[in-house]
Design goal:
Elements: E1 7-11, H1 18-28, E2 32-35, H2 42-49, H3 56-76, E3 81-84, H4 90-100, E4 103-109, H5 112-121, H6 132-138, E5 150-154, H7 159-173
Parallel strand pairs: 1-3, 1-4, 2-3, 4-5
Length: about 190
């Protein structure tokens, strides 16, 4: 049996809604939201914007910076951290776990046609739709036993359904989820 986790990664390929889900869960569970994309060095952003997939070497640097960001938030208080991060490979998730402690995984997944449609609809993001294929090839879905706790959500479902069930998952598996900084559990009405 896996104990309670301190941090949550909302993972998946580009365009599945990681940032939206992670930020809403952070608000509902009184946690911190961390946007993984903000930790990319300019060279990574430039490569992706040009349609060049990142190598493992480039991703290791990025993941190291993310671990530093999680560590800083964990040192600040007991609130859980909700990270929006592709975390495509098992080795990447292992690094996050080794560097930051037990990790709950929410995997947003779905039909590639839906994801492609979403990528074409979004604006002001450096990741072009042409990189979806390389991300799907790199994706190693989390092992529900070896990487537990893990919960997969199909993005064809409504955002409200995903958030509701993901919040329930977090309250079962994440330490301090839903607690205020004082340690008290707020009522449902107080959670945004």
């Amino acid at each position: 049996m896996v104990g309670l986790c301190r941090n949550v990664v909302v993972m998946g390929v580009c365009g599945v809604g990681k940032s939206t889900v992670a930020s809403r869960l952070a608000a509902r569970c009184n946690g911190h939201f961390l946007e993984g994309d903000q930790f990319h060095p300019p060279e990574n952003v430039g490569a992706m914007a040009s349609g060049i997939p990142l190598t493992d070497k480039e991703r290791w640097v990025w993941l190291g910076e993310i671990c530093n960001g999680i560590g800083a938030l964990n040192a600040r208080d007991d609130a859980p951290v909700f990270l929006a991060c592709s975390a495509l490979k098992r080795s990447y998730r292992t690094l996050l776990r080794v560097r930051t402690g037990p990790l709950a995984i929410i995997h947003l997944d779905g039909d590639s046609a839906i994801i492609h449609q979403r990528l074409h609809a979004r604006r002001d993001h450096f990741m072009p739709p042409s990189l979806l294929g390389s991300q799907l090839r790199d994706l190693e879905p989390p092992d529900t036993h070896a990487e537990a706790p893990v919960r997969r959500f199909d993005i064809a479902r409504s955002l409200d359904q995903i958030i509701e069930e993901a919040e329930h998952f977090c309250r079962r598996h994440v330490a301090s989820a839903g607690r205020s900084p004082s340690g008290e559990t707020p009522s449902r009405q107080q959670i945004p």
